[in-house]
Design brief:
Largest sheet: none
Order of helices and strands: HHH
Keywords: Membrane, Transmembrane, Transmembrane helix
Distance between the termini: 10 Å
């Protein structure tokens, strides 16, 4: 099993909250995907959408990685 320290011990106690966060991230991604066809490249809203994509991917990686580590921990 994965040897985790006190940080993951604390984070794994919040797995229910992480599931809610994943649901929120999915809703935000769906809204972003539906709005992208209406944005013109080179405009301010398009730049904000690109930054939002980067933030959403980063959040998915962090929450997903934490969930995988928590799933592999010893109970």
């Amino acid at each position: 099993m994965v040897d985790t320290g006190p940080l993951f011990e604390t984070l794994c106690a919040y797995q229910d909250v992480m599931r809610g966060l994943v649901a929120l991230l999915v809703v935000m991604t769906v809204l972003l995907v539906f709005s992208l066809p209406f944005l013109e490249p080179g405009t301010g809203p398009y730049a904000i959408a690109v930054v939002d994509i980067v933030l959403l991917v980063g959040a998915f990686v962090v929450v997903g990685g934490t969930s995988v580590v928590c799933a592999r921990r010893e109970p």
